[in-house]
From TrEMBL, chain A:
SUPFAM superfamilies: PLP-dependent transferases. This is serine C-palmitoyltransferase. Pathway: Lipid metabolism; sphingolipid metabolism; Sphingolipid metabolism. The gene is LOC109726813. It is found in: Endoplasmic reticulum membrane.
UniProtKB/TrEMBL annotation, chain B:
The chain crosses the membrane at residues 21-45, 51-68, 126-143. Pfam families: ORMDL (PF04061). InterPro entries: ORMDL. It comes from Ananas comosus var. bracteatus. It is found in: Membrane. This is ORM1-like protein 3. The lineage of its organism: Eukaryota, Viridiplantae, Streptophyta, Embryophyta, Tracheophyta. The keyword Membrane applies. GO terms for cellular component: endoplasmic reticulum membrane.
Amino acid sequence: MVRLPYTTALTTLFSYGLLFAFGQLRDLFRKLLDWFRSKDLKGYAPICLGLEDFYVRRLYLRIQDCFGRPIASAPDAWIDVVERYSNDNNKTLHRTSNSTKCLNLGSYNYLGFAAADEYCTPRVIESLKKYSPSTCSVRVDGGTTQLHAELEELVARFVGKPAAVLFGMGYVTNSAIIPCLIGKGGLLISDSLNHNSIVNGARGSGATVRVFQHNSPSHLEEVLREQIAEGQPRTHRPWKKIIVIVEGIYSMEGELCKLPEIIAVCKKYKAYTYLDEAHSIGAIGKSGRGVCELLGVDPADVDIMMGTFTKSFGSCGGYIAASKEIIQYLKYTCPAHLYATSMSPPAVQQVISAIKVILGEDGSNRGAQKLARIRENSNFFRSELQKMGFEVLGDNDSPVMPIMLYNPAKIPAFSRECLRQNVAVVTVAFPATPLLLARARICISAAHTREDMIKGLEVISKVGDLVGIKYFPTEPPKLAKEAHKKRESSIVAERFCGCDIIGV
Amino acid sequence: MAKLYVQTAPPPDLNKNTEWFMYPGVWTTYILILFFSWLIVLSVFGCTPGMAWTVVNLFHFAVTYHFFHWKKGTPFAEDQGIYNTLTWWEQMDNGKQLTRNRKFLTVVPVVLYLIASHTTDYQHPMLFLNTLAVFVLVVAKFPNMHKVRIFGINAGS
């Protein structure tokens, strides 16, 4: 649910219309200018059909310098961003050898393990010397080291499931596992804002895919009832199996999933559940065990739990945790296990050490401190931003907070101005988010100190004023409560197509 | 003056090419664009209001026919080409006919036609052109014309 002023919606639509019109005009002139140039394809078909690359050529390339910035240091609380310049209006970018030290508000470094850590790094270097950077083999051939076996047990224990299996890449974990679990004749019901890896896995599986409205257990129930009653398309036979896929924290919204209600609905209709905890494992919950611990759901109720090691553990790779039978089945059938190189041993050691720190098994309470710090930091940052008048999404306790920008011109404005003031933020536009809901996504880390966050807030406030994204009235600190009440009563419902009526 | 806010949840439409049409403010923006383009035509050409409405109507015909009923596919490659044989109109609302958005888009050319023909006093060459425009646009939006390619025109990818 996003709230935006009506005029912002109108101007955003108009700006996209204008950008589209200019893009089409430029394409038209390019076609006219190239009319007489010979298009000798020598009988081959053109690579891009018609409009397919329009968005990339005419919209994305104009603001290319806001995306894909190379970095020159570990993604700690402060990061070195390499400077780039362009001679042809952002069509091509060239790196310089200078870099600026910026406050890092974009990396998924939730617990601060991304930079050198006093417990993890010496052990990682030791394992690098002992096991070398790559196993040079697939898991089934010669790629399973002691470390891999140890980590699989540790992950299963950490998450609360009987067994687990590891993969070298987080994206691949979803897109290679889902086709193994379900095939033609099955039904996948996935949240409308699920990550691209899940969408790819679902498309690759051959099962029928249906989507339910984001985070709404009532719509999920409606979709389930309709689909179970209708059966498979055309033959109307009953579905072979139904899997419902949700995420723990949605990375573009920062919202937590309504897990207890969704599990209750799935149990009622005997559908399997698949929980993708890429952003929530290690970052939320009292001992870091993710969204199940935070919302009080028994891990035995979720059939398959997936997660990645890139966010909270400072490594790379992903895992699937489920019952012993499912894991054994996956080890025999999943192509990512049978044909892909196994996870790099130092990366495995990094995860083992990180989990030990979180659980407190390294002999200190740094894990508990980090978890408390990230919770404090996220809540502080989010409440300060909301007081300044920004539209910030996400639930309390979630370390991901998107600040809504909406207008396409504000994306490069916000990004470039923040970089000029030495704060590195990540801005996200179409197609990772819906067209009109462009945002700047802030990821808070346990490595951020109070001073870092205050500096970040100052810069964001100044840039927000310049760019004009403070859509809500700011709250002066003393009159906070009364201003809150006034804001609630000034929200008016609009009954144009598709949007909801808000009760006052 | 209280600022008007709207609340919206992202619609569960997987086709990113058409889901932007389900957000609040789209209808108003469309109507405002037509109105402001009439003002611009009036100020640039200095013609009678009726002539300006005719120009807007014909320009609207050309633009909406080209983008809604001629161009096929989507302007990005993320959907791997599953909509490559469908025009924007056919992709709207996932192919469901007679939804609110479709009814609105069918009414707009008719209203423009009425305004244009009224303000030109139903005089000849304008009336013929306006009628042709509204006829083609409304027929293209009939539910029976879903995925129909007359004489195979525009059937290739």
